[in-house]
Amino acid sequence: MYQAQQSEGACAPAATIYEEHQFVALYREEAPKLRSFLRRRIWLEDDRDDMVQEAFTRLAASRSSTAWSNPGAYLHGIVRHLLADRVRAWAKSRPLDPTACAADQEMPGPDAAAELNQMREHYRLAIDRLPPRTKEVYLLHRVDELGYRQIAEQLSISMRTVEWHVAEAIVRIGKNIGNANG
User: Fold this and answer.
1) 3-class secondary structure for the chain?
2) Contact at 8 Å (CB) between 1 and 18?
3) Which of 172, 182, 115 is nearest to 138 (CA)?
4) What pLDDT, on a 0 to 100 scale, did the predictor assign at position 2?
5) 3-state SS string over 74-125?
6) Which range is most confident: 1-15, 88-102, 134-148?
7) What pLDDT shows up at residue 84?
8) Molecular function terms in GO for this entry (predicted)?
9) Residue 18's CB: how many other CB atoms inside 10 A?
10) How many whole angstroms separate alpha carbon 162 and alpha carbon 74?
11) d(Cα 11, Cα 74) in Å, to the nearest integer?
12) What is the mean pLDDT of residues 44-62?
């Protein structure tokens, strides 16, 4: 549906690949789907809008041909990733151990804690299902927080290959988490 213009190359930034009207059409088609997906997971509309905006910003900055071959799936992968990051940040800020909470701190409800634990489990299983090299690259990027260049040097692969593995991991994790959630 949204085909990249071949004259600019598959790795050119989005702004040079897509015409503005194509990107607007993509936004009009995918943004409501992303908001609908997030509506069940985030209560605040502003937070949902920010997350959708962030996903499109990352897509626009992406040089990955994988992202542009199926931008809808890529956007959903980004949103799921952002959601996982949000849950991870929230989990770090709030201890789930009831004995570790001070008496005046508000504890997460049992539903929120169960949902968080379920999401963590789905995320962990999705990472475990990645092909070994993709998993290695993804974990170096996300857990060890290495940049693409550092990963490329460490594994003796090109930066483009690193980008491909990270994008592939995001798409696969998104699909696995999506399948797990129904």
Assistant:
1) CCCCCHHHCCCCCHHHHCCHHHHHHHHHHHHHHHHHHHHCCCCCHHHHHHHHHHHHHHHHHCCCHHHHHCHHHHHHHHHHHHHHHHHHHHHHHCCCCHHHCCCCCCCCCHHHHHHHHHHHHHHHHHHHCCCHHHHHHHHHHHCCCCCHHHHHHHHCCCHHHHHHHHHHHHHHHHHHHHHHCC
2) no
3) 172
4) 44
5) HHHHHHHHHHHHHHHHHHHHCCCCHHHCCCCCCCCCHHHHHHHHHHHHHHHH
6) 134-148
7) 83
8) DNA binding; sigma factor activity
9) 23
10) 16
11) 15
12) 86
Q: pTM for the whole thing?
A: 0.45
Q: What is the pLDDT of residue 166?
A: 87
Q: Is 111 left (phi over 0), alpha (psi -120 to 50) or beta?
A: alpha
Walk me through the domains of the chain, giving residue ranges and CATH numbers.
Answer: 16-93 (no CATH), 130-179 (1.10.10)
List all residues 6 or more positions away from 58 whose beta carbon is below 8 Å from its beta carbon: 78
**Block residue for tokens 């409800």:** 109
Percent of the chain exceeding pLDDT 70 equals 77
Instruction: Please name which of 100, 102, 108, 87 lies closest in space to residue 41, comparing C-alpha atoms.
Output: 87
- Measure the CA–CA gap between 80 and 78, rounded to whole angstroms: 5
Tell me the residue type at 170.
I
